[in-house]
TrEMBL record:
SUPFAM superfamilies: Zn-dependent exopeptidases (SSF53187). This is Zinc carboxypeptidase. It comes from the Bacteria. Residues 40-396 form the Peptidase M14 domain. It comes from Sporosarcina pasteurii (Bacillus pasteurii). GO terms for biological process: proteolysis. It holds the Pfam family Peptidase_M14. Belongs to the peptidase M14 family. InterPro entries: Peptidase_M14 (IPR000834).
Length: 396
């Protein structure tokens, strides 16, 4: 198969220009920094409008579907482009205050639906499925968690009566501008389970971060159902990319602020003693492919020479988070990539947000092009270990 080359030219991307603790659960993660408004990002109604416009202008190339509803009844969308045998699922805003991925996805959809020869070749090789705003209630509330009470869970799952509320449920505390005592909610990205057919049982609550979740939130149920439908249609989901935000960190050994952190591992390898509890999934798990996908993103960003796009690092390693979408899908056979964009949305001015959105687009570009032309399989997985780590301190 011939190489497709860098998709930067192919897609004509838009011109807008302490260590991470992924497992942490505390109101501190909800901190708002109101130096800037979030009005420059895409809100729910704008998402609906833009998806409709993209679908119409693509003349059938992009298919937009409602695949579920949030707890408060907002539609959750997926957009599909391409008909290839290789399947890539890309998700954003499972945390509603992590918004750059949504804008990047809309930009990618517009460009991937173009009539260029290169875009047509990509669509022939890959089926790309985007879920641009996984948690619309949280997005509208500019907060991490959804808007769902434990009592609502008990209505949907009466067998949980008497169980302790899930560990990822917050119903107290105020984080500057948000009062969880008045508006409780769940961290949806801890509500996944490697058993995609799991039914909640009282004995599994309250759980903890290194144990599976339960699919008790409608947002996680919707994501799970999309994943299963892709498995049914295509046999497997080759790659899953989850776009998040992190705090302010540095590339280890430098004073360079991290633009984007990457990670490939969210549960211990089931083929090792550390991952023995996941042994039933060992035939599906492919850590090397996850590492190759991450290397593809890293190489694409590094190709820009001396620029902020080269400030890429590895996020926390050695994680055991089966209740995340990344951990669950990895155990079900998908190569996985975490994008952690620097900062929170309220910390960004227009120029900064544009630069970070473009960094996400370019990282996605590296993965999509490498999967489409098959070059991802030629990458050395061990190169992943050479990516510099993330540091909480600058080194002069």
């Amino acid at each position: 198969m011939k190489k497709l080359g860098s998709m930067i030219g192919i897609l004509a991307l838009s011109a807008s220009l302490a260590l991470p603790v992924y497992a942490a659960e505390s109101p501190a993660q909800e901190t708002h920094h109101h130096e800037y408004s979030i009005s420059g990002f895409t809100n729910y109604s704008e998402l609906q409008h833009q998806l409709q416009q993209i679908e119409q202008s693509s003349k059938g190339i992009v298919e937009v579907e409602v695949v579920g509803q949030s707890n408060q009844g907002r539609d959750i969308y997926k957009a599909t482009v391409g008909t290839g045998d290789k399947v890539i699922l890309i998700q954003s805003e499972i945390h509603g205050n992590e918004k750059t991925g949504t804008v990047a996805i809309l930009n990618m959809l517009e460009n991937l639906s173009s009539n260029s020869k290169q875009a047509r070749e990509i669509r022939e090789e890959v089926t790309l499925v985007f879920m641009p705003m996984m948690n619309p209630d949280a997005s509208e509330g500019d907060k991490r968690r959804n808007s769902m009470t434990w009592n609502e869970v008990l209505v949907n799952f009466p067998q949980l009566e008497g169980a302790s509320p899930a560990w990822n449920y917050l119903d107290r505390g105020i984080s500057q501008s948000f009062d969880y005592g008045k508006n409780p909610g769940f961290d949806v990205n801890r509500d996944f389970n490697p058993d995609l057919n799991y039914v909640p049982e009282a004995k599994d609550f309250p759980g903890r971060s290194n144990e599976p979740g339960w699919f008790i939130t409608p947002e996680a149920q919707t994501a799970r159902d999309v994943y299963k439908s892709l498995q049914d249609e295509h046999g497997k989901v080759d790659a899953f990319i989850d776009i998040h935000h992190q705090g302010m960190y540095y590339v280890a050994g430098t004073a360079d602020e991290v633009t984007l952190s990457l990670s490939a591992q969210f549960v211990p390898d089931p083929n090792t003693p550390a991952g023995e509890k996941y042994a039933q999934y060992k035939d599906n798990y492919n850590y090397d492919f996850s590492r190759q996908l991450n290397v593809a993103a890293y190489n694409e960003l590094q190709s820009y020479g001396n620029s902020p796009f080269t400030n890429v690092s590895l996020y926390s390693q050695g994680l055991d988070l089966p209740g995340t979408a990344l951990g669950t899908y990895a155990l079900n056979g998908s190569g996985t990539v975490l994008f952690e964009v620097r900062g929170q949305t309220q910390m960004m001015g227009q120029k900064e947000s544009g630069r970070l959105i473009k960094a996400v687009e370019r990282g996605l570009t590296g993965i999509i092009s490498a999967v489409a032309d098959g070059s991802v399989e030629e990458l050395n997985p061990e190169d992943y270990e050479k990516i510099p780590r993330t540091s909480s301190r600058a080194t002069n």
